[in-house]
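Reading a protein record of the kind used here takes little practice once its layout is understood. The reader may check this reading against the record printed directly beneath this paragraph.
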Amino acid sequence: MIGVDVARYAANTAVMVIKVLPNINGFAKKVVYTEVIHGANYITEQAPRLKKLIQLYNPKEIVIDGNGPGIGLLDAMVLPSFDAKTGEQFPSYFAFNNDHHLPPEKKSEGEEPWPEYRAIIYDIKAGASNDDSIHSNFFAQINNGSVSFLAHERIVKEKLLKTNRGKKMSAFDRRVFLLPYEMTSRLIDELNNLRLKPTGIQN
């Protein structure tokens, strides 16, 4: 699974790749990669990078926050994309639960529909009706140990610098390698600062 929290301008779009496996207690979730996508332009910057990650990780679903700025990213995802830096071209990806971003219907009798893998986007819209359930489920998943995160940046950096590969890396390459772990460390710090608001209701 790939989860995407969309932002523009001063903020950055956050992407998290999670491996989900069934177990006796339900599902185990393991974060395998995370990054932030810098750049405000959905068509030339965000969509091509996200489609590259789709190619690399081949997710069953990609969950995009379709509220606010997320609408612009969804619009860009259903268009073919081009990465100006690498020259790579990427196909369209569609939603399967959003009437405005569904894959096109067959144009004529006998024509094959779009491949199933292209309709992999789940458009999630948080709002007053589901905010409480989303937050409650999030805290439950974190607190019951169902989610495993990447190692802390400090630990990975120490191990990397002990290897020949790490010693030969340039400062830039080392920064790129450690970035997902740095993002994870920041996320964990933010999670540790979160507190549930007391409602005064006792169950």
